[in-house]
């Protein structure tokens, strides 16, 4: 690396392109599920995202994208959405969201379908010099207003997946950043099993999405339990990637920790 590596966050793009996208020819874009049905702020949100992303993210930077990437139901239907990510500068690191039905159980199939600048985490990590990025989708946490008995199984599975990701990090890594789609606590902001894992593995930075613009007054405080939390839902950030932090130059060594 030359100079500092900047890490940004942006999630919940909810793309649904039905044909290749050519930046600058936005009038030709066709969506299967236009997000403008959720409000005027979402009109041409892909254009806002592209223009703001290209204005601040450089080719050496990294953008964490914790979920809800595409509305597609099958991997092949997400092809144009993934290709759009491939036109954005920087390296993109993803975990799935609750609407990413296109993401098959076989992570190798996902990786074969990705453009060169996109990486995914599933029970493993991505290493950026002396820093590792871990993550999982997450789920509703116990005592949440919407938590039901059937949610226990998924919650426990996501705890296990996060711990697998954290355990995959080798010795020599000085810092681990975690990203999840769901907020890692219930809506009362009570301590959860995810927080227990953060503290056990000495996590100082957590990036999450899912809540959208409605999160004002509902999101986690920026700092709790000694951890910095960053909400990066696209509409919450007005479709502008949020700078999470800068890493000093660390030479070669970035790659998937598998």
Explain this structure.
By secondary structure, this protein is of the alpha/beta class. 20% of the residues lie in helices and 20% in strands. The protein is built from five helices and twelve strands. The strands form two sheets. A seven-stranded mixed beta sheet has the order 9-10-8-7-6-5-12, with helices on one face. The longest helix is centred in the middle third of the chain and has 17 residues, at 151-167. The chain is globular and about 50 Å long.
Note the topology.
Elements: E1 5-9, H1 45-56, E2 62-66, H2 79-86, E3 91-95, H3 107-113, E4 118-120, E5 126-128, E6 131-136, H4 151-167, E7 175-180, H5 193-200, E8 205-208, E9 223-224, E10 227-231, E11 242-247, E12 255-256
Parallel strand pairs: 1-2, 2-3, 3-4, 6-7, 7-8, 8-10
Antiparallel strand pairs: 1-11, 5-6, 5-12, 9-10
Strand content: 15-25%
User: Helicity range of the residues?
Assistant: 10-25%
The ordered string of helix (H) and strand (E) elements is EHEHEHEEEHEHEEEEE
- What characteristic shape results from the CA principal axes? globular
> What is the typical, i.e. mean, pLDDT?
93
Structural class: alpha/beta
Cα distance spanning the termini = 22 Å
Tally the helices: what do you get?
5
- Which radius of gyration do the C-alpha atoms yield? 17 Å
Sheet with the most strands? 7 strands, mixed
Number of strand elements = 12
Strand order of the largest sheet: 9-10-8-7-6-5-12
**Which spans have pLDDT < 50 for at least 5 consecutive residues?**
251-258
